[in-house]
Amino acid sequence: MAQRTGNSQGMDDTERPSVAGMGQHLPLQPVIIVAERIAGRLRVRNHGIEVQVVKRYHACAFFLLPTVLPFLHQDHKELLMPETKITTPTTLVVGAGELGLAVINGLLERHPENVGSISVLLRPSVDAVQEQLARQLQDKALHIVRADLATETVEGLAAIFAPFTTIICCTGFVGGPGTQRKITKAVIQAGVERYVPWQFGVDYDVVGHGSGQPVFDEQSDVRDLLRGQSATEWVIVSTGMFTSFLFKPAFGLVDLERPRVHALGSWDNRLTVTTSNDIGRLTAAILAHEPRIRDEVVYVAGDTFSYAQLADMVEGHLGRDAERVLLDMDQLRSEVASHPDDGMRKYRLAFARDTGVAWDKDRSFNVAQGIDLTDVSRWLKQRKGA
Length: 386
Ligand SMILES: NC(=O)c1ccc[n+]([C@@H]2O[C@H](COP(=O)([O-])OP(=O)(O)OC[C@H]3O[C@@H](n4cnc5c(N)ncnc54)[C@H](OP(=O)(O)O)[C@@H]3O)[C@@H](O)[C@H]2O)c1
Hints:
Elements: E1 31-35, H1 36-39, E2 50-54, H2 65-68, H3 74-80, E3 91-94, H4 98-110, E4 118-122, H5 128-139, E5 143-146, H6 154-161, E6 166-169, H7 179-190, E7 194-196, H8 204-207, H9 214-227, E8 233-238, E9 241-242, H10 243-246, E10 254-255, E11 260-264, E12 270-274, H11 276-288, E13 296-299, E14 303-306, H12 307-318, E15 323-327, H13 329-338, H14 343-351, H15 365-368, H16 376-385
Parallel strand pairs: 1-2, 3-4, 3-6, 4-5, 6-7, 7-8, 8-13, 9-12, 11-15
Antiparallel strand pairs: 10-11, 12-14
Helix pairs in contact: 4-11, 6-7, 7-9, 12-16, 13-14
Bound molecules: NADP nicotinamide-adenine-dinucleotide phosphate (NAP).
NADP nicotinamide-adenine-dinucleotide phosphate is lined by residues 95-100, 123, 130, 148-150, 170-175, 200-201, 241-242, 245.
């Protein structure tokens, strides 16, 4: 019927039947027996063709699809062919900034053997710094793909994305308004199997539209696009704010030098934060999780605290009092009204709320999986020691 491949690595010889005797192992209806890594991409169950998954290698596992296909009934071939991609899983990380590099490190730390199957999308290089980054990534055996997310069309991006089985978008709000919608449409159009969109932030289902930060509105649109289709599986990693962003002088929340802590809206309002390194590790863990996580929002949390607790932590770290300044809603709204083009003021307004920007650490993926993350106190200690 079908031929075995030459590769017998991992095969259990005691269970290896002869080719002639194979018939007794196969039922009368068409059956395709594949290794688990391929099975996730076969969506044929509801067409009367059964997919059996083998974890333990058995001779049957080596009946790879191309050798089985000639023996299938024509009807079954037609059902199978358009829905089946026989490719080695490949991953494209879009962007190699703070988050992109952390995600690449997380993927390599978890599966160093997969290095050859990971590509990174960078913009067409214009300076020596970008060239140097590309060389460093190539030295790690990663492949470089070039595209300008700001100017590339949906069709152009779809053509770039099509060869990949997994795409992880690590370029937040670069490229201007509409870029995340455009990337998402291109991923869906390309028929990419699995997508991790740029949603490494707040709970956009709760925050919804009209938060005062237009980039948050776009994130809600991305969720609508993903939920409105079934061709591409997606996983959203909800991380809260990047821990580094909490201390970013331009954001103006914590000033460690002065020292001063601002509360957004109320001292009781809470925030969840996660470091970019931990987001990278967790994204890799979530993608590798068994059973496979499909079409779900996964909540992670490096730390969750109120602004009052944040001020306590800063004081504890510095060993002296910090000035505490409350920015109330009226003040935050009027600042946005008088500086309508200032993204940071919009962020301060959007984060000033008691829902959607924080969740209990106890119900996070990392706590459920026993994965230890860097909380704010540890982050501050590491920063001091750096
Ligand atoms: N959750 C949060 O707390 C939070 C808060 C605020 C902002 N963010 C957002 O997080 C985003 C991503 O985080 P990050 O820190 O990794 O950002 P980042 O360090 O700025 O990295 C962005 C990446 O995208 C690339 N890029 C920029 N413009 C591009 C274009 N037109 N075409 C192709 N690639 C392009 C950059 O390349 P180059 O190096 O060549 O520019 C870089 O590799 C940021 O955009 C930021 O807006 C997150």
